[in-house]
Amino acid sequence: MSQDLPPVGGYGPVQYKRNLPVRGFRPAYYILGMGALMTYGFYEAIKAIRDQQELAREKQWSRIYLVPLLQAEQDRDLVRRHLANEEREKFLMKDVKGWEFGSVYHSDRFIKPTYVVTPARAVKPDKPIRVTGGAA
Prior knowledge:
With 136 residues, the chain is mostly helical. It has one helix at residues 27-92. The longest helix has 66 residues, at 27-92.
């Protein structure tokens, strides 16, 4: 009986791998693309942070430059209130003998008021008190 033998030259190679077509780019290209995208994103983020810091610095300096103007306006308002308070006190204390304005503090030095007192029931004077030189 004759035995089966391989053909002369042997059998052909056995295909055991899947022969799938290559889709997309190589992984190295994806890594390079993501690196470039992240680099650009970090660049834009750092630029935006610097712009925000510059705007904050500009805002702070504008506030610093406005302080003298705001202080002058507050001083004008304080003088206006002081003069109105003087007129009001003179009107209320006109019948008291020996009363002089500002004698509450027992000093010639000006003391800036730390709070404003508004009475619950205000007394209306006979003639209106006029204060000039400021917003009323």
